[in-house]
C-alpha cells in the first residue's frame, strides 16, 4: 500500500480539503447502499437521496460551527457536554463510537467480498488488522497519495458505470414482491444512503489540528465533495438500475459485483474487485481516525479508562486503535455488510441528532440560518433513525442505554 505522510500544517490553497472529505465518503456506501435503498423505496430512491443530502448538509454545518468554537478532537461531543449536560453527551458519544466500529466492520466486509468472496470475513479481519498497524505507525493518507486513491476509486466506479450502459441489459426478472413506495420507504432509503455520506466530519470536525482548514477552504471543500458524491452515487445507482432493474437490485447483497455478471462482463470482475478493495483501505483508515478523535475526548474527561489514551513512539493511541480494530473485526466476522451498515447508520443518526441539538444551543445567539439548519438537521436525524429496520433500532437502543451507564461507571460522575 502506497504511503505518504503529509507534514503538519495547513495547505494554504485548501487543495487537500476535497480528498480529505470525499476520500472518506467514497466508500462502502457507494458500492452497496443502493441495494437496500432500492429495497426500501424502489423508484422513489432519488427522493431518499435528496433527504439524506439535506440531513448531511445540516449536520456538516453544525459540526463545522462546533469545531470552530471548540478547537479540540471530538468537538461535537464537547459541545453537547457543555451545552446539554453529561448524560446527553454520553448518549451521543456512545452512539458515535458504536456507529464507527460497525461502519468499519461494514467497510471491511465489503472489502473482503470484493477481494476474496469465499473468505470475506477473514479478509475483513486481516484488513482491519493492517489498518490498525498502519494507524499505530502514524500513517496518514494525505496530499498526493490521497488524490491518487481518490482517482482510483472514481476509476473503478467509472468502469462499472460505463460497462453497465455500454451493454444492453437482459430482460428484467419479474418482481418476487412489490417494491415499497411509501413515505416510510423513502425515509428508510434516505437513512441507508446517509451512510454513503459519512466521512464529511473528517473535514468539518477534524481529529487532528493539522487537518484543520481555513473556514472558506473548508466550506468550499465540503460543497465540492457533497456535490461530487451525489453525482457519483446517482450515476452508479442509475447504471445498476439500467442493468439489473429495481427488483433485482433490491435483492442484491453486492450489486456492483453482480451487475458485471449480468452485463456479460464477468472478466472485469477480478479487476474491479481488487481495485475496489484497495480503494476502501484509506476509507477504513479515515473511519479509525474519526473514532479516535471522539474516544480521546472521552478519555480526557475520564469517561473511558486512561489506559486507552496511552501513546506509542509515533504519538498514536495504540491501545485505543487496537481495541477499535478488534471490536470491528469481531463484528465483521459475525455480521453481513448490509445489517452492519444499517446499525452504523442508525447509531450515527442518533449521534447527529444530539450534535445538531448542541449546535442549535451554540448558535442561539448567532446567525439565524445556521441555527435553523441545526434544528432541521436534528429533526431529520430523528426521523431517519426511526425509519431504520427494527433490528438496527433495537441494537442502537442497547448502545444508548449501556454506553452512558458504562462511561458513568468508569468516571463515577453522573453530572
Concise overview:
The protein has 415 residues and is mainly α. It is built from 17 helices and no strands.
Can you describe what's shown?
Helix content is 74%, strand content 0%. It has one domain: Amino acid/polyamine transporter I. By secondary structure, the protein is mainly α. It has 17 helices and no strands. Helix 6 (86-115) crosses helix 7 and helix 8 (143-166) packs parallel to helix 11 (215-250). Keywords: Membrane, Transmembrane, Transmembrane helix, Transport. The chain crosses the membrane at residues 12-32, 44-65, 91-112, 118-139, 146-170, 182-200, 221-242, 262-288, 341-363, 375-406.
Principal-axis shape equals: globular
* CATH class bucket: Mainly Alpha
Spell out the CATH superfamily. Amino acid/polyamine transporter I
Strand content: under 5%
What's the CATH architecture? Up-down Bundle
Structural class by sheet pairing and helices: mainly alpha
Give average pLDDT, whole number: 88
Number of strands: 0
> What profile does the largest beta sheet have?
none
- Enumerate the spans where pLDDT stays under 50 for 5 or more consecutive residues: 1-13
Multimerization status: single chain
Helix amount: over 70%
By CATH, the topology is Amino acid/polyamine transporter I
Number of helices: 17
Radius of gyration: 20 Å
Order of helices and strands: HHHHHHHHHHHHHHHHH
Q: What is the end-to-end distance?
A: 46 Å
Number of domains: 1
Amino acid at each position: 500500500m502506497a504511503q505518504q505522510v503529509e507534514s503538519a500544517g495547513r495547505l494554504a490553497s485548501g487543495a487537500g480539503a476535497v480528498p480529505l472529505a470525499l476520500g472518506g465518503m467514497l466508500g462502502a456506501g457507494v458500492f452497496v447502499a443502493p441495494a437496500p435503498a432500492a429495497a426500501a423505496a424502489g423508484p422513489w430512491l432519488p427522493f431518499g437521496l435528496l433527504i439524506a443530502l439535506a440531513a448531511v448538509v445540516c449536520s456538516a454545518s453544525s459540526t463545522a460551527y462546533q469545531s470552530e468554537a471548540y478547537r479540540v478532537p471530538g468537538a461535537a461531543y464537547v459541545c453537547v457536554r457543555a451545552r446539554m449536560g453529561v448524560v446527553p453527551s454520553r448518549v451521543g458519544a456512545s452512539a458515535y463510537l458504536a456507529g464507527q466500529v460497525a461502519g468499519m466492520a461494514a467497510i471491511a466486509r465489503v472489502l473482503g467480498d470484493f477481494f476474496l468472496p469465499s473468505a470475506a470475513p477473514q479478509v475483513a479481519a486481516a484488513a482491519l488488522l493492517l489498518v490498525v498497524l498502519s494507524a499505530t505507525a502514524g500513517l496518514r493518507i494525505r496530499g498526493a497519495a490521497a488524490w491518487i486513491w481518490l482517482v482510483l476509486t472514481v476509476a473503478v466506479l467509472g468502469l462499472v458505470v460505463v460497462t453497465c450502459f455500454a451493454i444492453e441489459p437482459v430482460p428484467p426478472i419479474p418482481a418476487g414482491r412489490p417494491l415499497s413506495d411509501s413515505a416510510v420507504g423513502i425515509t428508510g432509503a434516505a437513512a441507508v444512503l446517509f451512510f454513503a455520506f459519512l466521512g464529511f466530519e473528517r473535514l468539518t470536525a477534524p481529529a487532528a489540528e493539522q487537518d484543520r482548514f481555513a473556514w472558506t477552504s473548508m466550506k468550499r471543500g465540503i460543497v465540492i465533495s457533497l456535490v461530487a458524491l451525489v453525482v457519483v452515487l446517482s450515476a452508479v445507482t442509475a447504471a445498476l438500475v439500467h442493468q439489473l432493474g429495481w427488483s433485482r437490485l433490491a435483492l442484491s447483497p453486492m450489486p456492483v459485483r453482480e451487475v458485471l455478471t449480468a452485463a456479460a462482463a464477468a472478466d472485469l470482475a477480478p479487476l474491479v474487485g481488487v481495485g475496489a478493495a484497495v480503494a476502501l483501505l484509506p476509507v477504513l483508515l479515515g473511519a479509525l481516525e474519526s473514532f479516535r478523535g471522539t474516544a480521546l475526548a472521552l478519555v480526557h474527561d475520564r469517561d473511558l479508562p486512561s489506559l486507552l489514551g496511552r501513546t506509542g513512539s509515533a504519538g498514536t493511541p495504540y491501545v485505543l486503535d487496537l481495541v477499535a480494530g478488534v471490536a470491528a473485526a469481531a463484528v465483521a466476522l459475525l455480521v453481513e455488510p448490509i445489517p452492519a451498515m444499517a446499525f452504523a447508520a442508525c447509531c450515527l443518526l442518533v449521534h447527529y441528532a444530539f450534535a445538531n441539538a448542541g449546535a442549535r444551543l451554540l448558535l442561539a445567539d448567532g446567525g439565524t440560518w445556521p441555527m435553523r439548519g441545526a434544528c432541521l438537521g436534528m429533526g431529520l436525524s430523528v426521523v431517519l433513525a426511526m425509519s431504520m429496520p427494527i433490528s438496527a433500532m433495537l441494537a442502537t437502543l442497547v448502545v444508548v442505554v449501556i454506553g452512558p451507564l458504562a462511561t458513568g461507571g468508569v468516571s463515577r460522575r453522573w453530572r
